[in-house]
């Protein structure tokens, strides 16, 4: 059975790393589900979503010439979009004005911190001499 891009398959999780999970498909072929393709929510620890031995439904994203296979659990779900939601958790419920205000506040804090680190230190050795 040839594995084709876009096909939905079932597989068993055979290994978990900090960057994703290895899933064994039919005929012993193994592919990788990158951590960003595990769930729509932001995944910090993949162990919160998967464990070795789980049977999962995956979508084939890429089959590279070297035999590497990229898989997605997130896109295999019914009605799933290939576009990943961007931004911070909770930003999807915020309006444009709220997002803009958050951005401006974060920018000001970063600038203030940068200015503090670049300002010459006052006093101590090497200060002005009379």
TrEMBL record:
Gene3D superfamilies in UniProt: Nucleic acid-binding proteins
UniProt keyword annotations, A-Z: Ribonucleoprotein, Ribosomal protein
Region named Disordered: 74-96
A single GO BP: translation
Segments forming domain S1 motif: 6-74
Pfam families listed in its UniProt record: S1
GO cellular component: ribosome
InterPro entries per the UniProt record, alphabetical: NA-bd_OB-fold, Ribos_protein_bS1-like, S1_domain
Protein's UniProt keywords contain Iron-sulfur: no
A GO molecular-function annotation: mRNA binding
Domain of life: Bacteria
Keyword Nucleotide-binding: no
Free-text function comment from the UniProt entry: Binds mRNA; thus facilitating recognition of the initiation point. It is needed to translate mRNA with a short Shine-Dalgarno (SD) purine-rich sequence.
PANTHER family: 30S RIBOSOMAL PROTEIN S1
Name used for this protein in its record: RNA binding protein, contains ribosomal protein S1 domain
Annotated organism of origin: Hydrogenibacillus schlegelii (Bacillus schlegelii)
């Amino acid at each position: 059975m040839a594995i084709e891009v876009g096909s939905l398959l079932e597989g068993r999780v055979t290994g978990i790393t900090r960057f994703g999970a290895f899933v064994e498909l039919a005929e012993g072929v193994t592919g990788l589900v990158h951590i960003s393709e595990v769930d729509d929510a932001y995944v910090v620890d993949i162990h919160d979503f998967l464990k070795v031995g789980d049977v999962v439904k995956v979508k084939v994203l890429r089959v590279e010439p070297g035999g590497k296979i990229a898989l997605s659990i997130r896109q295999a779900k019914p009605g799933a979009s290939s576009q990943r939601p961007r931004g911070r958790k909770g930003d999807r419920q915020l309006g444009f004005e709220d997002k803009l205000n958050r951005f401006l506040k974060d920018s000001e804090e970063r600038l203030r911190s940068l200015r503090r680190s670049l300002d010459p230190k006052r006093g101590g050795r090497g200060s002005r001499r009379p």
